Amino acid sequence: MAVDPSDDHDQLPCGTSADALLDHLRKGTVTGHERTCPHCRAAAEEFRPLLAALDSEGEITAPPGLLDDVMRTVRAEGRSRQTLRLPGGGPGDTRVRHSAVSAMLRACVDPAEGLIVGRCRIEQTPDGLVVAATARVLSGTVIPEATAAARRAMGAFVQNRLGLRVGRIDIDVTDVIERHGRP
Amino acid sequence: MHTDTALPESVLVERAQDGDDQAFESLVRRHQDVVYRIALRTLGNAAEARDTAQEALITAWRRLPDLRDPHTFPAWLHRIVSRLALNALRARRPEDPAEAEDSGLRERSAGPDDRALATGLHEALRGALAGLPPPQRICWVLRELEGLGYEEIAEIVDTTPTAVRGRIHRARTHLVEALEPWR
User: Which NCBIfam families match (chain B) (predicted)?
Assistant: First the structure.
């Protein structure tokens, strides 16, 4: 096969793309033309060792320990050092990292109610704690009911567990997800 | 949280963007094999591939807040590891042990004595891959070994789909010629 950098020359004389032919040979989806055309058959013969070499590749998986090494660094770095200051008698302050509060707020919302929370950001304002969350609804969910339930659960958590006033809880529904076992 | 594995990927990405390291761990579990494979096939050296995969995953954690569309996470991650692998390849000097190892493979695999061995064919492919210029090698790895489309590869390697097509064509031509003794 001649070495030619131009795109046109990726085509065999019959017009079939060599790349497409190789792809079909690998997937076992060779067309009627490719099976009978002499140009395609000659190219397929040229590709035979390459196909065999590609097939001889075993499953390559990540080395053991990679995940642990990555997560050790990730956990050591954390995402944000921002903290929420909680009310309470001193001496001393009680602070909770934003990422921990977000995780607890997400955990308040039971996916069984039809809502899965993704992003959950918080901000302490003079009016109280402002929560901004994104969520996916499971198909068939009545959205106003599900978001109202999520707001109640998050609001109760903010008031009862953090001892803070709720400023606002914004929920941005971004997608619909099919329920498992449903069409 | 074991239930993370059942969550849609975009939800995991958004949670990880907020600093949820458990969500990020689920993403690493899902993608570490492909990240390592891209690094290994580009670099041809297991130790370097492990380092590059680790660096890519940690870089992903650090840059995750900048990712705007959570659905593009896999392509974005492929881009990170591909670029790091290319940089590592370009940083090598010809006398580097990893390259020397590749050259050894190339010479050994070219001999007809190995013809009967499937491992010989497999090593011949590895050796031939090591002989490709880096831009061709990465395009071939992403197309033929990871099954990505021209558009996606073009975005990853910062070029046009036509240029990607040309590189894959040249890579395939080189590999077919290198494996000719096995025909």
Answer: sigma70-ECF
Contact residues for B10 (Cβ-Cβ < 8 A; gap 6+): A118, A136, A175, B70, B71, B73
Does A103 lie at the interface with B, CB-CB under 8 angstroms?
A: yes
Give the pair of three-digit tokens for residue A67: 């995940």
In B, minimum Cα distance to A63 occurs at B50
Are B156 and B165 spatial neighbours (Cβ–Cβ below 8 Å)? no
Closest approach of A61 to chain B, Cα-based (Å): 5
Select from A49, A74, A78 the Cβ nearest to the Cβ of B183. A49
Ranges of each domain in chain A: 11-55, 95-177
Backbone angles phi, psi at B148, to 5 degrees: -80, 155
Architecture of domain A95-177: 2-Layer Sandwich (3.30)
Q: What count of other Cβ atoms lies within 10 Å of the Cβ of residue B68? A: 6
Tens of pLDDT, residues B107-132:
334 444 444 456 688 888 888 988 89
Determine the Cα angle at B170 with ends B165 and B173, to 5°. 125
Mutate one of A23, A47, A56, A68 to test the B interface: name it (highest B CB count within 10 A): A56
From CA B36, how far away is CA B54, in angstroms rounded? Answer: 8
End-to-end CA distance of chain A: 49
Give the ipTM of the model, two decimals please: 0.81
Q: Do A118 and B36 touch (CB under 8 A)?
A: no
Whether cis (ω within 30° of 0) applies to the bond prior to B65 is: no
Q: Which of A78, A179, A89, A174 is nearest to A138 (CA)?
A: A179
Ranges under pLDDT 70 in chain B: 1-5, 93-119
Strand, coil or helix: what is A94? strand
Strand segments (E) across A13-165: 83-86, 94-97, 115-125, 128-138
CA distance B58 to chain A (A): 6
**Stated pTM of the model:** 0.80
| Contact between chains at A63 and B50 (C-beta distance less than 8 A) | yes
